[in-house]
């Protein structure tokens, strides 16, 4: 069995004039914390080890148990954030999660103390700290994604949910009108999607929360033997004679 470690976020403060405790800690705050910590521990994982959770007194202690490797890595990341005072070197998903914890501290006047089984008092986030990304290296770009559409729709933010082998499940934002005009149901079909994204100029990383549909593309990853045979027949014999002229004609007279 893989060795486990512990990641802890302790929140102190007040809720409506009363000392914060599990008894007056709102479930929305709890849900946000669970999401943020998952993004911190496993920002890019398509599959991840189990994360177990306990909520304890003092004022409110969130205790997470998961694979020791993730705890060691996360502890090192938080050490670096403490030393540098910024989030610019982090992956986008991790940086956004820490920014959200900072936002909670601002809005609720909370102090968040982060520790782990590797190190006590790794990082403190409070209304007086400013852990936000200062550099914005993201530009609008386009990207193609391929996979199986597993769901379409949504009341407030209509999306195509696309399961890909490379990026896991992506939520491609679109409009209700676009979905209404679809002639065929695309669910459970292999599909290509051309999308607008926000992409980091340095790393190539894209913001998974900002993917907007441009176009659906018919796509099949099945091997088409007849199509390949036809291409071979068309090419057969072309390498006899003036191959330079044939290649030049194939390129439309343009240099490679």
Structural overview:
The structure is a single chain. By secondary structure, the protein is an alpha+beta fold. The protein has two domains: 4-125, Alpha-Beta Plaits (2-Layer Sandwich), CATH 3.30.70; 138-218, OB fold (Dihydrolipoamide Acetyltransferase, E2P). Helices cover 29% and strands 32% of the residues. The chain is built from six helices and twelve strands. It has helices at residues 27-41, 68-84, 92-108, 176-180, 225-235, 243-250; strands at residues 4-12, 14-15, 18-19, 52-57, 60-67, 111-116, 123-125, 138-153, 159-164, 168-173, 190-200, 212-218. The strands form three sheets. A five-stranded antiparallel β-sheet has the order 4-5-1-6-7. It has a five-stranded antiparallel β-sheet with strand order 10-9-8-11-12, with no helix packed on it. It has a two-stranded antiparallel sheet with strand order 2-3. Helix 1 runs antiparallel to helix 3. It is elongated, with a radius of gyration of 25 Å.
List the helices and strands and how they pair.
Layout: E1 4-12, E2 14-15, E3 18-19, H1 27-41, E4 52-57, E5 60-67, H2 68-84, H3 92-108, E6 111-116, E7 123-125, E8 138-153, E9 159-164, E10 168-173, H4 176-180, E11 190-200, E12 212-218, H5 225-235, H6 243-250
Antiparallel strand pairs: 1-5, 1-6, 2-3, 4-5, 6-7, 8-9, 8-11, 9-10, 11-12
Helix pairs in contact: 1-3
